[in-house]
Every structure is written in C-alpha cells, then in structure tokens.
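agent> Task received from the user: take the single chain below, predict its 3D structure, and emit structure tokens. No templates, no multimer pairing.
agent> Plan: (1) validate residues, (2) run structure prediction, (3) serialize to tokens, (4) report one or two observations.
agent> Step 1 OK, no nonstandard residues flagged.
tool_call: predict_structure(input=
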Amino acid sequence: KYLEGGKEAGGQLVDQRLLPRISEGEVRMLMVGDVLQMIIHKKPESGLSAVGGMSAYTYYRPGAPEYAELEKKFLGQDLPQLKKSLDIEGEPLPLLWT
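)
tool_result: status=success, residues=98
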C-alpha cells in the first residue's frame, strides 16, 4: 500500500544493495527534518546481517570527531544531491529518518 500510485500519490522507495563490507558496520545519520540529531554506528554481531536486533550500536553526538568529515559531507553535499535526485527540492524532509 505504501507504494500504490507511485510518486504522484506520495509513495517513495530507495533501494539499497548489500555491501560486501557490511561486517564493518554501517553509519546512520538520525535526522529530524534537515537537522542531525545523532550518528549511529550499527555493527552486525555475527554474519552479514544487522537486522532483527543482531547488532551492536554505538551512538555519537553531532560534531563527534570520529565522524566530523562524514557529517560535513553528508549535510553539505550529499543531502542536497539526494533531494535533487528524488526531485524533492523545496519540499520538507520526513520528520524522522535515517
């Protein structure tokens, strides 16, 4: 039901492929609208899957030195490009998203 009617009806989907380095974990930027709230490093505890609670989480505040360059690039370059690619420039971002 979420995708019925396509973009015209408000449905959107971003497909991600499984990356071979997933065992190193993934970094998520927890956003409220266009404001970064938290940086999360999610690392699978075993195997190649981090779903179903099988992950170790480490939380960082915005501005954490470990992710300062990634944060700067994400907010300054990647986010505007993402909005352009999804054709949502000038529209509000979701209230809560990663």
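agent> Step 4: summary for the user.
The two ends are 22 Å apart (CA to CA).
agent> Done.
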